[in-house]
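Data availability excerpt. The first of two example chains:
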Amino acid sequence: MASERYHRQLILKGFGEEAQLKLASAKVLVIGVGGLGCPALQYLAAAGIGHLGLVDDDTVALSNLHRQVLYTTTDIGKLKVEVAAERLVEMNPEIEIITYPTYIQRNNILNLIQDYHIVLDGTDNFETRYIINDACALLNIPLVFAAVDGYEGQLAIFNIKDDNGICTNYRDLFPIPPKKGEIPNCAENGVLGVLPGIIGSLAAAEVIKLITEIGKPLINRLLHYNILTLQQYELNMSSGSDYTLPHTVADFLKMEDNNSCEIDSYLEIDATQLKQIQQKPSTLIIDVREEFEVPLLNPDLYKKIPMSKLDEFLAQEVTAYHVIFICQHGIRSITAAENFHKKYGTSKKVYSLKGGIAKWRNHLTI
């Protein structure tokens, strides 16, 4: 059965049974089972990767379905990792799949990735990408990085030495993390659904090339792809010195952000803190997402003020003392909190829900 399942790649020149056995012995962790993770996982499972780990704490939403091709309408509200695992087992029951319905943080990632040979990062925010990068660099685990935005995608491989002995990581590409709310993700900018399918498939191909040692993987090279023009180009990367990587577990954990991040103008909070503040008198929670965005929140608890109408709102007088801003991923809410603070200064307590609804959906009253 196995030889028949993989026959078309077994007969490839330069592949054969030896490469297939390497795939069967490989352990690959895919972080983010969304637009990039879904196509990558389909092809990794179909190719016969022996052990696949799936990390994602999110549930399926209707707005996911145009690009996250492992899910259907009947899956809405279910955990992505559980649905994905079920579909992948149906596709290939000969492989082992382990699910981790959890949100990546510095205090849990080392335990998650330590037993895997390769990590594929299909996440959609900078904070998590830096955490994944630092953990992989600390444990010397190869990292396949994939990202999409709008009509463009990027792909690279980190933490492997090339023929010249050079080894790069994500911080060589972006040594200075962007400021809070500075760069929106696809939830804010949008993305053409087929694009993550292309980039996710390419990421799966790079994983397979690394494991089987065929071809020329994108080690220390960044591939940039534009779906509108079908143009692509590569950038050669070199290691820099504008950053410090952790050398011990203690160093790694010291870099951890607190659940609440105190900024001059606002306070970043988690869902538990939101509920605590919600019980205080004179509290207003503002959802700055646009009218078309889902999930819909209870209008009795969350006031809808889209970012496109925020200036009109700020022109009015707000009587509440505690003002919490929320959005899909905690990016626009930061901008809103900063703008609100410019008007009211320290006369009010201003907050932003860190990670947004995407992170805390199961903890909010919807």
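And the second chain:
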Amino acid sequence: MEVNFRHEDSTFVPEITTLILVTLVTLLAGCWRYRVYPQLGRKLPPRKLGLPIVGESLSFFKAQKKNLVAEWMKKCTNEYGPIFKTSLIGSNAVIITGQAGNRFIFSDSDSGIACNQPASELNGMESVKVAPLLKKTAFKVTCSLLYALSEGKEKDALLENFAIALKGIRCVPLNFPGTLYRKSSIARARIRNLFTQLIARKRRELEEGKVSSHEDIISTLVSLRDEDGKPLLEEEIIDNLITLMIASHDTIAILLIHFVRLLARDAEICDKVLQEQKKVVKASEGSGGKLSRREVQMMKYTWSVAQEIMRLTPPVIGNFRRAWRDTRFDGFDIPKGWQVLWVTSDTHLDDKIFAEPEKIDPSRFQTLTKSMPPYTYIPFGAGQRICPGAEFARVEALLIIHYLITTYRWTEEIPDEPMIADPIPYPAMGLPVKLYSRNNI
């Protein structure tokens, strides 16, 4: 068979050659702009940035998936000290650990670091998977209290899209069909569209006098005015709503999951929590079983258990911020635009701060809280930049634990169930338990 090449096909070779050259030049220019230029004339923290684009994302996320980030961090700090550079999720990053580092991140002074995420969202005996159930419960409570969303398609759609979007917060930003980043971006777009509709609805209801400005968080944000009398931009309102959703939902859900897991494993702690909650039940008898702030304040031991859980298994291993200008810490330069990652494990597991840090001991938070060095216990951040939803998370978690432990007792079905990070610490099998009704409370 004879094959004839047309004359015009000869242009294909120079075209593909040009494309390759342009691609190489673009990659080299990007490498110079984001990896070489920022380092010129600066004293940057030690350690290499790793491979272009990918950096150390693969090894970091591998450790995260196995719930070994603390070990990954410890290995780095042992070799390079409390501050070192790397590249994660397509961005140059400085990782800062220790009490001084936490103070630098959370202090209200102008450190040049701003909040940021890389651009990368029964009756009788019954067997249930507690982890997904508690995540759904916490999410629905948050939607009801903060956004005044009733049960229905809107709340279900928000939960579904939020779960997808969250998985993409710390993935490599490869925006191709089928990638987790693309799926996460689409889910975030759906969330924004839903919030846009809710904001428009609240504006109409406020104008018609159907709701007050304090009806829920959306009504409050829509009603806010700056010193010039101008309302918040819709994009600003949506960003605040998403931030609140992430902070209030995941912190509470993960705390509750580990709380249930601990109570199934430690009979002594479980009994102490139960006895405290029985006193709360008795104190609320005059109000028909409804709990007030007074009853919540009685749950001191229960909250100390929660604090200990968050010390050992914080809801987030840390978070990203971005240097909005050139800044310095501990004698090192942090260039404008670089990510800064703060982590919890360095101080939470420091035996100079917490005696026998690997041991579960809720009593340490009944005696240590006032003498604990500042910027060392940071599940909600610290200082002027502490999470504004911390008190909301505390009250919601305590209320759910109260009703759960006074209604049921439970046993684990998989006592040696491993933990994974997805991206937060999570029981690999969903924490299946056997539930038994309590009839004596």
